[in-house]
Each structure stands twice: as C-alpha cells, then as structure tokens.
Amino acid sequence: MRSLQSRLTLGLLISLLLLLAGQWVVVDRMVRSAVEGYAQSRIEHDMESLLAAVAFADDGTPQLTSPALNAVYNQPLSGHYYQLRSGDHLLRSRSLWDEALADSAIPPGAARPFRQHGPGEQRLIGVTRGFEIQHHPLTITVAEDLSPLRTALVRYRVYFALLFVALLAGLIAVQRLVVRRGLEPLERARRELMRLEQGEIEALDERAPPEVRPLVEEINRLLRVMRRRLERSRNATGNLAHALKGPLTLLGQAADGAPEPLRGELHEHADALRRLMERELKRARLAGGGGGPRLDLRRELEPLLDTLRRIHPERPLAFELRIEPGTTLPMDREDLLELFGNLLDNACKWASGRVVVSAETGDGLRLAVEDDGPGVPSAQLAALTRRGTRLDEQTAGHGLGLAIVQELVDDYGGRLELTRSATLGGLCAEVRL
C-alpha cells in the first residue's frame, strides 16, 4: 500500500495535470484567436485602404490611384496579397508574382472569410468582400500568410510547456515538503514508539497537533491499562501462591504421620504442586516485554553473581563479565533477573570452575553464558528447552530453568541457541534479542 505522502502527491499530480491541461487548452485557444484576430484586423484595414484608392478606367479596368498600401505588397511572395476583380478584369499585387488567389465574384455587401494554401504552400487567412464602385461591381480579396505567426505560436507553446513542467515540478516539491512537515508529528510518534519499545521512555509525548493528539492519548491510555492488567495479574498470581503455601505445608506435615507407601505418595503430590506453583510464579514474570527504563547490564548482574557465589560456596567459581560499561537492555528487571538467573544457575551447576558472561551489540543484542563443564552432546541440545527435561537426574533441579528462559526469550521476540562453547568447551547458551 502506498504511503500517505505518495497518495497525496499522486492526487496533487493528477489535479495539477487536469488543471494545467485545461489552462493550456483555454490559453492556447485565446492566444491563437488573438493572433488570428490581429491578422484579420490588419486585413480589414488594408482592404479599406484599397477601397479608398481604387478607381475605374473607361474600359472598366480597376486601378489604384495612389500607393495606398505598404511596400510589402510589392515584394514577391512576401506573405501579404491582394486581388481586385471586376467582371473579367483582374488586378493583383506584385507580391503574388504570377499566381492568383482562388476567389469568385460575390454581390456587393457580402463577405466571405477563407483559409487556403497560397504561393509557396503558404497558409493564408483572408477575406473576400463585394462592393459597387462607380456603378461597377468590385470584389476585393486580401490575404496574409499565418506561417510567421504560427511559428511564434509554436515558440510560445514550447515556452509554455517548459513553464508548465517547471511549475508542476515546483508545486510537487513544495507539496512534498509541506506534507513531510505536516506528517512530522506522526514520524515523531513513530520514533517515540521505538524508544518506548527500547525502554527509554514510559509514555508518548502528548504535546502533539490536535489531529494527532487523540491517537497519542489513546496509545498512552492503552499502555496504562496494559501495565495495570500486568500488575494485577502478577499480584493475583503472587497472592495465589502465597495462599497455597500454607495448605501445602500442612499437607507435608500430615504426610509425615501417614503410613508408607501413602506418605511417599502424598509428599510426591505436594512437591508436584509446589513445583507447579513456582513455575506459574515464574511464568507470571514473563509478561514484562519492555516499556520501562533501560537497565544497566553490569550493574544488574554483579549482585546476581555475588548471590550465586553464596549459593555455591563449596565450588570456587570464577565469573568473568565481558560486557562494555554502559551497555543497557530494554527489559523488565524481573525478566532480566529471571533470564540470567536461570542461565547462570545452570552454568554454575555444571561448570568446573569458570563461567563467562558476554554481551555484544550490533544487529540487535547478543547475550551469551558459557561454562567449562562437560557440555551436552549435540543430539541432546534440542531437548534441554523442553519443560521438565533433565539429562542428569543426580543434579538438583526440576528441569524448568532453560524452558522458562525459552519462554521468556520468545516473549521478547528473540532466539535462544544452545551450542558447545568454542573457548571453554562446556555449554554455551546464546540469546539474541
């Protein structure tokens, strides 16, 4: 679908073409009419001069008593011609040389305009009128070559066409500039939406023109509604989990006094409910999706690494952060801690002594957590992100960590890749956002 600017430009182009084409037709006809009217007025003037100078000899031959006309009528093929006919007698201008104008005698008082080809294929315009002088019938024909005027008219058309094109290009350029400036509030709103997605702002600027302000206000209202719904959902899930803790504890205490094998079965069901509750609590935090302030990655990860050192005091783990200072991530803080918490906890369980966390920016954001543990065979890598899958039952856990990471990455429109670390040899969990 074409953009608004393209549609408006196309509409203006069609309108201008129709307008200017109509103007071209009207102006061209007016100019042509004016040119031909000017030629007709000169013809009528010359005819009056001829009529005033004409006289008849005794034998009825018409003749001019004085050189009443311009010398151009004496120049051969000059484009200005006259012809006087009285009965069988004919008087022609020297400019006709040895040719004659096609005419015929008409009664006195009659007039007949004409267009015809003259000497040298000239395109003539003229008029023939009938008179009666000294009781002699007289037909006077005066004609003028329109070729010079038509040449000037063609030159005018070329100039008008060039002016037409320049005016059209100028108007379209001005219109595109006006439309671009007029659509600037929408472009600004689009940039703010990108900043909103990146977490740089929490709402759109409502200082917009009246035509755009309702849209911006509606987007901000929807953002507030979604945040309230998200908060209510998280609170409801937390309240439900808190409410279930008490009954689960009582269930576990009651199971301790039950005989075998009922005791083991009750403990198993209570643990299953507890794992389900923990899983749903974590899933409730997967709805962050950005929109808040950007988080400084190093600042958020350093306390998390200190916590992991305390969780695994029996293992001297060395953590290495390969993250440039100032690297930020447009992600909800709970989601960030959930993402790296699961990846780092998984790395700590399997690492021999070294865990590397790296971040690279460029075409998106690349996050990687690598360890120097035994790694995972390539054939089993795809199974790691399935909920409840554990490749080693002797290691503590429920098989939910990487599955939750996969759900969280999917929620942010990213991609999780599990490979063998090229530098450390263990598992490499790479997240691309």
Uncertain stretches: 387-399
Q: Would you count the extended β strands for me?
A: 14
Could you say which overall geometry the principal axes of the C-alpha atoms support? Answer: rod-shaped
Order of helices and strands: HEEEEEEEHHHHEHEEHEEHEE
Overall average residue pLDDT: 80
Rg from Cα: 49 Å
Q: Helical region count?
A: 8
Q: What is the multimeric organization of the chains shown?
A: single chain
TL;DR?
With 433 residues, the chain is α+β, with helices and mostly antiparallel strands. The protein has eight helices and 14 strands.
Question: Describe it for me?
Answer:
With about 425 residues, the protein is α+β, with helices and mostly antiparallel strands. The chain has helices at about 5-55, 145-180, 185-200, 215-255, 260-285, 295-310, 335-350, 400-410, and strands at about 55, 60-65, 80-85, 90, 110-115, 125-135, 135-145, 295, 320, 330, 355-360, 365-370, 415-420, 425-430. It has a five-stranded antiparallel β-sheet. Strands 9-11-12-14-13 form a five-stranded mixed β-sheet. α1 (about 5-55) runs antiparallel to α2, α4 runs antiparallel to α5 and α7 runs antiparallel to α8. The longest helix has about 50 residues, at about 5-55. It starts with a helix and ends with a strand.
Which labels suit this protein?
433 residues; alpha+beta; 5-stranded antiparallel beta sheet; 5-stranded mixed beta sheet; 8 helices; 14 strands; 19% strand
Structural topology:
Elements: H1 4-53, E1 54-56, E2 62-64, E3 80-86, E4 89-92, E5 111-117, E6 123-133, E7 136-145, H2 147-182, H3 184-198, H4 213-256, H5 262-284, E8 295-296, H6 297-311, E9 318-322, E10 328-329, H7 333-350, E11 354-362, E12 364-371, H8 401-411, E13 415-420, E14 427-432
Parallel strand pairs: 9-11
Antiparallel strand pairs: 1-2, 3-4, 3-7, 5-6, 6-7, 8-10, 11-12, 12-14, 13-14
Helix pairs in contact: 1-2, 4-5, 6-7, 7-8
